[in-house]
Automatic annotation (TrEMBL):
Protein name: Polysaccharide biosynthesis protein
Native organism: Lentilactobacillus hilgardii (strain ATCC 8290 / DSM 20176 / CCUG 30140 / JCM 1155 / KCTC 3500 / NBRC 15886 / NCIMB 8040 / NRRL B-1843 / 9)
Transmembrane segments: 21-40, 60-79, 100-120, 132-154, 175-196, 202-220, 248-268, 302-326, 338-358, 378-399, 411-430, 436-454, 474-498, 504-526
Domain of life: Bacteria
Keywords annotated in UniProt: Cell membrane, Membrane, Transmembrane, Transmembrane helix
InterPro entries xrefs: PG_synth_SpoVB, Poly_Biosynth_Transport, Polysacc_synth
Membrane topology: Multi-pass membrane protein
One GO cellular component, as annotated: plasma membrane
Cellular compartment(s): Cell membrane
Amino acid sequence: MIDNNQSHSDNSREQMLSGSAWMTAGSILSRFLGAVYIIPWGIWFGDYFFRGNALYGLGYNIYSFFLTAAIAGIPSAIAKQVAHYNALNEYSIGVQLYKRGLVLAIGTGVICAAALYFGAPLIDGGNANVVPVLHSLAWAILIIPTMSLTRGYFQGYQQMAPSAISQFVEQLARVAYMLITAFLIMRVFNGNWVTAVSQSTFAAFIGAVAGLLTLVWYYASRRDTFRSLVLNSSNKVHVEPRTLYHEIITQAVPFIILGAGITIFMLIDQFTFFKIMRMATNYSNDMLSDLYAMFAVNSNKLIMITISLSSALAITAVPMLSVALTNGDKKEIAKQNSSIMVLFMFVMIPAALGMAAIAGPLNRLFYGVNEEALGANILTFSSMISIPMGMFVVISAVMQGLSQNRRAVKFFAVGTLIKFIIQWPCVYYLGAFGPLLSTAIGLTISDWLIIRSLNRQFGFERKNLNWAFRKIGLYSLFMYVVTLAAVYGVNYLVGLVSTPFGRIASLVVTVIGVAFGGYVYAYFCLKSRVADMVLGPRSARFRQLLRIK
């Protein structure tokens, strides 16, 4: 019996690692494309770069909120419920869930797209340039809910490859359209920069079409497998259509709130930053727009690469925890909770500290040398804050996977209230750093409340967790020091022959810093066997490859 339990646990870990690997690869590649495009895009915008980037961010934050409402948490709810019924060998009910969810997704997509398009003049924050941007973004909301729902259906079967690949294809098509239109409008036709930004945001619709077509192809190629599972279902459970809708909506509402968590915090910044800064300073609108772009768009675009690691893990965790909960295996839940936390720390802490170490050259590489020192400092601070942000993404998903939806929403509400209370003094006295600090404090409080609740109800394997945290924290700090030393050293050497502040020089410094730091972290984690807790038998192959005993 013990062997069977151990085998089941190992299989769960392998499934989580495999799913996380696919989702992480898809998320990282997508986020990388979503960040690296900024280099040519910024060059083609020229003097309008920061204003264009700020306008892009102002529109996208509002769009993200409407998109979250349109998606309505249905994909994650579908993934969870499909996994639940699949664990009972009731695959036919999962198909019914998908069909009912599709009706809801199309309906919410149409309603939210119309609300964003026609309501744009009412939510532009007094900036008329935001209106055409919101109009262009509304089209994407028609398609993305259906695409996201289909991804959730695949995830319910713990098939992460279709989601990951469609995500990459979506981003590739989006970025290609953005760059082509930006070049044509700004460089070939010398057009208006607002028009160029509007086309860059319309690219979300182009990407959504490409992503949905990818999923359709995947479903068509696996149709026989799905049909076979449905035909061999137990068919012992009958669920009325009304009950299916109730299940979807009940599960979806908390996913809306928690899925929009970081977006809600960003919207608070968007609608308060300019007002508070006008009270605290005599900065011009263009200067305030540049500051907003630095913390809300520029640095956010880069830290979302690391936060996407958390998102990938969260997507994988929900259906797996739902299966363990369905089976009533509390010991397995505690193991999975611990594995998720260790995997999060193993990836997120070194990623955040590593980005902080290379903030200077990374900021120059993507955004040039304008306001270089301030931009680098904001990116350093943002990198640290990405840890509580990523933690919230993961553990709120864990709560939902364990049907602790109301508690998770309540804990998020507490963090949001704290953010509201301290937003004014933070922004007034700290400027562009203020919104980041208030976000960090609010989310840290939410994180602490959620972790405490998980520990009380389901528990963790605390001995292994504490050991892993100490080791990972220590190795991450050592990696940070080595990376920082490499950055300063290479900067000095490059400075002997040319300026170290150009984009090519910054790229060289960044790559070398990442290589040194990454090797040091990998060496210590493999040497100490911390990596074994995360990678399992794969660690032995990596030790052999790097000749580590």
